[in-house]
Amino acid sequence: GNLFQATDSAGPLPRIIAHVVNDAGRWGKGFTAPLALRYPVAQTTYLRWAGSGRLELGKTIIVPVAPGIHVAHLY
User: Fold this and answer.
1) C-alpha distances in angstroms, 26 versus 7, 18, 47, 63, 66?
2) pTM of the predicted protein model
């Protein structure tokens, strides 16, 4: 399916897109490539967070990317 069909569909807000990350602190090609194209702030915020050295198991950062839509970066 298409990730964005779910976020674009009618229904209650808010919606959260879960992005489970590893400790490499890099932005990949699979799931994250279309995510960055659609919501570039998700990528810039994650890379800033990863570059800060604050990646720590159990931490989460939630980024508003559009009205009622958030990306949760889960480490």
Assistant:
1) 24, 16, 7, 17, 23
2) 0.84
